[in-house]
Design goal:
The complex is a heterodimer. By secondary structure, chain A is α/β, with parallel strands linked by helices. In chain A, the strands form two sheets. A four-stranded parallel beta sheet of chain A has the order 2-1-3-4. A four-stranded parallel beta sheet of chain A has the order 6-5-7-8, sandwiched between helices. In chain A, helix 11 links the parallel strand 7 and strand 8. In chain A, about 60% of the residues are buried. By secondary structure, chain B is mainly α. Chain B is built from 21 helices and no strands. The longest helix of chain B is centred in the middle third of the chain and has 33 residues. Classes of the chains: A alpha/beta, B mainly alpha. Chains A and B meet through helix 2, helix 3, helix 4, helix 5 and helix 6 of A and helix 11, helix 14, helix 18, helix 19 and helix 20 of B. The complex binds iron/sulfur cluster (2 copies).
């Protein structure tokens, strides 16, 4: 972003990468896939790079409102400093916080989740998915992210993206409003689960596997980690892959 | 008993019941207002619409069709049969019998037949509900928090409703016989289909006995209803009233949005040297008497109202991922505990006790840390609740107390906090590595470019 501003250029959209997208080896592949798509369709975008910082979502859900607000205040300072208007992010947690929680603190942006963004690109014909691509007829099941679905009512965008792949989309019994959490939200990602019968992600993975899908599609870094761990735990990583919708598009487009 | 004594007795019963009810309602109101927060009188048309759809229209019940239909029968029955109670009350006051019968003439038969039809529908629904609760193994009816009183409460309500409806039918059956007896002067009601089916049971009895049974059923029904009205203020059945304000005042923002803490915003702004928008740099001491919630007085009053609106149906718990995988957390229990605490504090205050200062608190004495820590803030409970209760809100407010007042969050959360503070990410990575993916991308595409050239 700093470079663009220095060169007097203006970005159409700011891509908010998020901590997982920046550091997590698995999720970095999603970041790269999404960037490739953006390049391919010729969208002028910027990233904050090292100026980006945690939105504060996990701190807030774990109860540390001070830390959250400190993060928010400094992020808003940076974003407003660059006069950012529109943000796209692949992380539903960042999306939710930026979209719903920052306005009250002085950060008003148009925030879009990458599933909606991709859906728009497909609808506008900017991404043309050719039928008979890599995923034609392959069984894919989509795991709803709580922070996209119930938290923000985004159920259809990721599904439409998958449908555009011409894949055979199968739903799990618990889907959409009844979707079952991956177990990582509410800052659970950062601590061990309380004692119980089972881990949440194992329960969910079993359900996903029982659909017989070869691919479990996700649209959230936390879901990605939890579902991948679940698949590994079930020794199914050879047959079943967990992929973000952006990766699926990039793969289909051979980017 | 002469008519006048009957009238006086009736008025007395009505007055006593009214007084008890009034006391109970003001107590509950005070308990709810132990909570804080704004009045939330904004967006009234949207709120009104929600109330109409969700409370009046039962919209969210229809996620499950069979219980929804049975519940609808109970609900419509309850609302409509109360019109008949209006006649009961007028008769009681004026010492009349079926005050509307002469005025409405032949038309009177129609509403009474409708009431009878609903009474039968209520009885059938209640019997099925009793069976579902006690015989079938529906998981949400057999949870840990649903022992003794809550379980008994549900059964009492169902049985009382059946008995009250049977009283109406008995009354109408004996009334129909008495209309034909020359030695009684009962006004014509016309043919009442359902109660007529009971006529064979009573036909052989003397006029005196019939009058006694008819009057007994009348008194039984009206006293039953008044007693029931008082009873429900102690029972989960209070949802029939509280569902309305609860859906009206329910949060309108997207479910993912956590409520802001303006006191913290102000402090952060002062710390960062940003003048607060309104230029007010004084921190209201009362405003931040406590961060987060330890007890009910720290909660938003809407959360306590939610506790009184809770039906204990367990739809929230049935959807909760933590609960489904065997963790102690049950959103229904969160609501039940909140109500129990409010009731306990209220009762104590009534007796002139210490109330909130009784050495107990909602956190720890009712809800444990293990429970609140297990929540994934997935909003499944909020989505599932047919009356728009938000158990998540209470959980998150308690986490705030634990994190900010006590600094007693689980150790790994504290580690996450310090990572965010020091590394600006919840993981312990160097901030300078944040942009590494871009270099990787460049290298990768350079490599593929090279490959293509070769
Ligand atoms: S938000 Fe928390 S309490 Fe509610 S269903 Fe999800 S995990 Fe359970
Ligand atoms: S909170 Fe709602 S869903 Fe849960 S038990 Fe109470 S009424 Fe039912």
């Amino acid at each position: 972003m700093a470079e663009m501003v220095a060169e007097g250029e203006e970005a159409e959209v700011l891509f908010w990468v998020g901590c997982a997208g920046s550091y997590d080896d698995r999720y970095k592949r999603v970041t790269k896939a999404f960037v490739k798509i953006l390049h391919k369709v010729g969208i002028k975008f910027a990233v904050l790079g090292q100026e980006e910082s945690c939105t504060g979502d996990p701190a807030r859900r774990a109860g540390n409102e001070f830390l959250f607000q400190m993060q928010a205040a400094s992020n808003i300072q940076v974003l407003n400093g660059y006069n950012v208007k529109k943000i796209v992010t692949a992380c539903p947690h960042c999306f939710n916080t930026l979209k719903n929680e920052y306005p009250e603190l002085g950060g008003d942006y148009e925030v879009i989740h990458h599933s909606t963004f991709l859906q728009q690109l497909i609808n506008e014909g900017k991404i043309k998915l050719e039928g008979g691509g890599t995923f034609k007829g392959k069984k894919i099941t989509y795991h709803d992210s709580c922070f996209l679905g119930r938290a923000n009512n985004i159920y259809e965008a990721p599904r439409e993206v998958l449908e555009a792949l011409d894949a055979d989309l199968i739903e799990m019994k618990r889907c959409r409003t009844k979707g079952f959490c991956c177990g990582a939200g509410g800052a659970q990602m950062f601590k061990d689960a309380e004692p119980g019968r089972k881990e949440v992600n194992i329960d969910r993975t079993e359900e996903a596997l029982s659909t017989g899908a070869q691919t479990i599609a996700v649209a959230c870094p936390f879901c990605m980690t939890m579902m991948s761990d679940g698949v590994k735990n079930k020794n199914k990583e050879k047959e079943v892959s967990v992929k973000d919708i952006a990766e699926l598009i990039a793969e289909n487009e051979k980017l | 008993m002469t008519g006048l004594i009957m009238q006086i007795t009736f008025l007395l019963v009505l007055a006593v019941a009214g007084y008890i009810l009034f006391r109970r309602i003001s107590r509950i109101r005070k308990n709810i207002l132990l909570g804080k927060g704004e009045a939330h009188n904004n967006h009234s048309s949207e709120r009104f619409k929600n109330m109409l759809l969700i409370a009046f229209g039962q919209k969210k019940m229809f996620k499950k069709v069979i219980p929804a239909l049975l519940h609808l029968a109970l609900y419509v029955g309850f609302v409509v049969i109360n019109l008949e109670v209006l006649e009961f009350v007028l008769d009681g006051i004026f010492g009349t019998h079926r005050i509307f019968a002469p005025t409405l003439g032949g038309f009177y038969t129609i509403p009474i037949n409708i009431f009878e039809f609903l009474a039968v529908a209520v009885i059938i629904s209640c019997v099925i509900f009793l069976w579902r609760r006690n015989v079938l193994t529906i998981r949400r009816f057999h949870a840990q928090e649903l022992t003794s009183w809550p379980k008994l409460d549900a059964n009492i309500i169902l049985i009382v409703e059946i008995v009250l409806m049977l009283a109406i039918l008995t009354m109408n059956a004996t009334d129909q016989i008495l209309q034909d007896r020359p030695d009684a002067s009962y006004p014509e009601t016309g043919f009442l289909f359902f109660s007529a089916l009971l006529i064979p049971l009573f036909e052989g009895l003397s006029t005196g006995t019939l009058i006694f049974i008819e009057r007994f059923a009348w008194w039984f029904h009206i006293i039953g209803i008044l007693g029931f009205a008082i009873y429900i203020t102690y029972s989960k059945h209070l949802h029939i009233f509280m569902a309305f304000p609860n859906t009206y005042y329910a949060r309108l923002a997207p479910k993912g949005k956590m409520e802001n803490m303006p006191a913290v915003t102000k402090e952060v702004q002062i710390m960062l040297g940003v003048p607060p928008e309104n230029g007010d740099v004084t921190i209201n001491a009362e405003e931040i008497s406590r961060f987060g919630a330890k007890d009910i007085n720290d909660l938003d009053w809407r959360d306590i109202m939610g506790a009184y609106a809770c039906t204990e149906c367990g739809r929230c718990t049935a959807e909760c991922p933590a609960n489904q995988t065997g963790k102690k957390l049950s959103p229904r229990k969160i609501m039940m505990d909140t109500r129990d605490r409010a009731e306990d504090v209220g009762k104590d205050l009534e007796k002139g006790g210490k109330g909130l200062e009784d050495g107990k608190s909602l956190l720890d004495n009712y809800i444990t840390r293990e429970e609140i820590n297990a929540c994934t803030s997935c909003n499944a409970c909020v989505e599932a609740c047919p009356v728009s209760i938000n158990p998540l809100s209470i959980i998150l407010q308690m986490r705030r107390y634990v994190a900010m007042e006590e600094a007693q969050s689980p150790a790994s959360w504290n580690a996450m906090f310090s990572n965010i503070e020091n590394n600006f990410a919840p993981w312990k990575f160097a901030p300078s590595d944040r942009f590494n993916w871009a270099d990787e991308l460049k290298n990768e595409s350079a490599a593929t470019q090279k490959e293509k050239h070769n």
